[in-house]
Amino acid sequence: MATWASSATSMPLAATRVRARIGAGGATGRVALRPRARAVPRAAPVTTSTTPPPFVDFDTTGCGPFPLLDPTRGYTHVSPGVCDTCADSAEARRAWVELLLGQLPSHRANAERTAKFLGDECPPDYTERYRAWEGDYEAYLEEVSKDGVPKGAGATLLDMVDEKERLLRRRGLDDMFAGMKAGENAIASVLFHSIASEIDGIWFPARTIDGDTPDDDATAKAAMIRAVIECCLAGNLFDAGAAAAVQGVQVGDFCEPCVVEPDSREMSEEEAGRYRLDANQLAEVFARARARVSRDASGGWRFDSLSEIVSRCVKTENPGWRRIVVFCDNAGADVMGMVMLARALAAVGGDDTKVALVANTHAALNDVTHAELRGFLSSVAGGGESSTGDRAGGPSDPVLAAQMERGRVTAVPSGQFSTLLDLNRTGPELNAWVEEEFRSVPAGEEWLVVFDGMGRGLESNWNPAPYFKDGVNALNLAMVKSEINAKRLGAEVYDCVVKLSVGGSK
Q1: Is residue 193 part of a domain?
Q2: CB neighbourhood size of 344 (10 A)
Q3: Residues ≥6 apart with Cβ < 8 Å to 109
Q4: 410 within a domain of the structure (yes/no)
């Protein structure tokens, strides 16, 4: 098992150097980087006799454009002010490099947690591999920060986060956040049942239970939808990639910046504990987060399409949407919110509604993976299929269990390995599901695509509607958790985004 205490004085200091260069106005020289290109940074040597497994790049066989895209409309994943500006501007790249460097303390804390989680299965040189990866990534970020790159040829944000994952795997670190995600998912699965009970007390989705009569009270249904969306927003706050958000809610203070300043020193156990919550803490903090994101408390969300969503859900005939694709974000409280949303929308739509909960095929930071999502669904539904294909017991949510049994809520892998989302490279299983269902429901207005979180719905796919087939609805659902995103959106940190748009519209 890896030992971390001995590495306190030998952690990479490149973050400080990179920040110094950024503060001094950036580096000079040209960098031969193109958007979406694989950059090859200089590697920091691994001071161990154990050789990591050979690097194998991510398998993208069968990946292709998301079938709901209109191929004539020229989709790119770029979100105005993020990826396109990064490609054109060294200043913009350096701003994102600063943010990515600021995440390193949380990465280190969670790598340590994963080492403990793996126990005897943890490679003996895990610490050295992690330290070497930090050196790799800091060197790469220093390189992409340089001036002198032709307009349009600079590294995009997608390049930066994709390269992070490739560099991790070159060091044999497949899932640096595995320990954190396992713990957060377990805690959230306990919290799920109390939240579901509360939601059902507002409007009980009886149409999913054999022999019961649907509750068609429009007022109650509207209140339920609003409560579920508020749970989604509260869940999205819990992002270990923006660890100060967690720290902020722990102390009940939603005013601190979300980005932790880079720091190469060893964390104390008390400091590392800021990145962890137990079940009681999560329940307490989640309640405070819900109060904070409440539409009433905020005086209305910064981007607010609640009325349009509610109007769609309370229709007398054909309420809701027939087919829904939900791109999930983080493990833990966030995925709990997305499962709650899928459960609610499936109930509103009735027996002809199907929801695909989509998660990354491969690990990326604290984003939930497809395997982890299946395990979470099993744990909260009870009797659902686990990540291993076994039937699981435990506490049962009869509503979700019935929906899963009937194929109305299902988990589908995205084919992706990034914290951002490029709809030009979605996986074959997701594309096959959409293509099959589109044959049954070919009307675009009967489809809803949900983009959860900053990476998928703010930093990429901020304005997806112009690229979709006519009528397809897109819902961006997130909380703004960084100053850089707040600035480009004309918002404030902790502002809520509930933005519905229609395919084909500008």
Answers
A1: yes
A2: 27
A3: 243, 267, 271, 272, 275
A4: yes
Q: Calculate helix-pair angle for 14-23, 126-144, nearest 10 degrees.
A: 10
Domain that holds residue 219: 178-232+265-502
CA distances from 420 to 141, 455, 497 (A): 18, 5, 17
Judge whether 482 lies within some domain: yes
Element (H, E) at 211: none
Q: 90-102 and 157-170 helices cross at what angle (nearest 10)?
A: 40
Angstrom distance (rounded) from CA 342 to CA 356: 8
Cα–Cα dist 191/175, whole Å: 25
- The CATH code of the domain that includes 436 is 3.40.50.10880
Cβ(187)–Cβ(67) under 8 Å? no
In this prediction, the residues of the chain whose per-residue pLDDT falls under 50 are: 5-14, 17, 21-22, 24-49, 207-209, 211, 240-267, 271-275, 384-394
Q: What is the pTM of this model?
A: 0.82
Residue 80 domain-assigned? no
493 and 476 Cβ atoms separated by less than 8 Å: no
pLDDT confidence of residue 250 = 42
β partners of residue 304: 498
d(CA 349, CA 312): 10
Structural domain tally of the chain?
A: 1
Residue 473, SS3 per DSSP: strand
Please give the DSSP secondary-structure letter assigned to residue 221.
H
